[in-house]
């Protein structure tokens, strides 16, 4: 009975959490190369909300239909990965894989998928941010030479600002995913699992996230130096 109550509580929590918020940073004015790319769905607020609500409703539906707690957790969480949150994800995998080695293998596969998604976002972002840097350099030179077209400059800056905000939002979600993996690793270490392989993958994820963060910071610094009244 206690296990059922805990499972239902997790599912309700997911639904309530998923319903919160307005959907993240708006994609208005964002370069289509970012907002409409194949990587746009990665680490997006909408994808996270859909996953949380879907997992919660699926879990409750399964429980009401008489399903076993472990099966319900597993079936509700298909495709969500750690986006469900560390605790829900951990309960799900422990219910699905009692064997620690099998569970560790699943963790490795899932975090490698997260790292791949970060790499994909980073590659897409680099092309856009490189273009933004070039634009900022042109604007700086025009300001120095007093040849600036203010109307066009303001239009360019609106998009650059939108791109930065859009990517910072994704970066924040990446950091949340990284923290979830750190939490999972800590809890599994306490259970007696050898998590050295998982920690190595967490380190790789951290490095890849840092690459994107450095790219964003570079453009943000250059953007702050451009003043158009």
Number of helices: 8
| SSE string, helices as H and strands as E | HHHHHHHH
Overall morphology: elongated
Oligomer: single chain
Mean pLDDT: 83
Strand coverage percent: under 5%
- The first-to-last residue Cα distance is 65 Å
Tell me the total number of β-strands.
Answer: 0
Radius of gyration: 21 Å
- Bin the helical content: over 70%
Low-pLDDT residue spans: 1-9, 14-18, 73-78
Please describe the biggest sheet, giving its number of strands, its sense, and whether it closes into a barrel: none
**How does the helix and strand content classify structurally?**
mainly alpha
Describe this structure as you would to a colleague.
By secondary structure, the chain is an all-alpha fold. Helix content is about 75%, strand content about 0%. It contains 8 helices and no strands. It has helices spanning about 1-20, 30-35, 45-65, 70-75, 85-95, 100-145, 150-190, 195-225. α3 (about 45-65) packs antiparallel against α4. The protein is elongated. The N and C termini lie far apart (about 65 Å). The model is unreliable at about 1-10, about 15-20 and about 75-80 (pLDDT under 50).
Summarize this entry quickly.
The protein has 229 residues and is an all-alpha fold.
How are the secondary structure elements laid out?
Layout: H1 2-19, H2 32-35, H3 45-64, H4 69-76, H5 86-96, H6 100-145, H7 150-190, H8 196-224
Helix pairs in contact: 1-3, 3-4, 4-5, 6-7, 6-8, 7-8
